[in-house]
Amino acid sequence: MKRQQLLLINVLLAATTVYAGSSKYDRAGDTAAFSRLKTLVGEWEADTQMGKAHLSYELIAGGTALVERETAEKMAPMLTVYHLDGDRLMLTHYCMAGNQPRMQARSFNSETGELEFQFLDANSLTNSGAGHMHNARFHFTDSNHLSTEWDFFENGQKKFTETAQYTRVR
């Protein structure tokens, strides 16, 4: 019996060590991802299902927050703010759906330029099934090209994905 308990304790300690190491790696990745996001400062355009889309990125608050303003021909303007919360990379999306989902970065690969955010919580959801942006993915192709995918969820399921390929114009 004691041998089984000792084995269980060793397994739990090993798992805890692996988890702690991975969370440190993730936080370091979040800092690198935020540095990469900051390089977006400027103006970007894309042809989308909503017509010509325009993104404007601006650093504010002494470089601690990145503001993204999005406009398109067939939709209301929206705003997204990216920032580090301690070591966590977060975004708050001020959506034309009238709510403000918050997402946390879950992965960043500096070699491929892939950054993924997942839903954390939201303000102003009328109910748990209300439509909202839930996940977002970015692909930094190079310094002048960016691809985005935003998943819209309703009633707990993905309803659609908005995709765009942006080119820097300034």
Please describe the topology of this protein.
Layout: H1 2-38, E1 42-48, E2 51-60, E3 65-72, E4 75-85, E5 88-94, E6 100-109, E7 114-123, E8 132-142, E9 145-154, E10 157-168
Antiparallel strand pairs: 1-2, 1-10, 2-3, 3-4, 4-5, 5-6, 6-7, 7-8, 8-9, 9-10
Q: What general outline do the C-alpha atoms trace? A: globular
Read across the widest sheet, the strand sequence of neighbours is 1-2-3-4-5-6-7-8-9-10
What is the CATH top level name?
Mainly Beta
SSE topology string: HEEEEEEEEEE
How would you characterize the largest beta sheet?
10 strands, antiparallel, barrel
Coarse structural class:
alpha+beta
Please tally the helical runs, counting DSSP H or I stretches of 4 or more residues.
1
Spans of 5+ residues with little confidence (pLDDT < 50)?
3-25
CATH superfamily: Calycin beta-barrel core domain
Question: What is the helix fraction of residues, given as a range?
Answer: 10-25%
CATH architectural type: Beta Barrel
Taken together, the total number of domains comes to 1
* Portion in strands: over 45%
> Compute the gyration radius: what is it?
19 Å
Residue-averaged pLDDT: 88
Query: How widely separated are the two ends?
Result: 69 Å
CATH fold-level name: Lipocalin
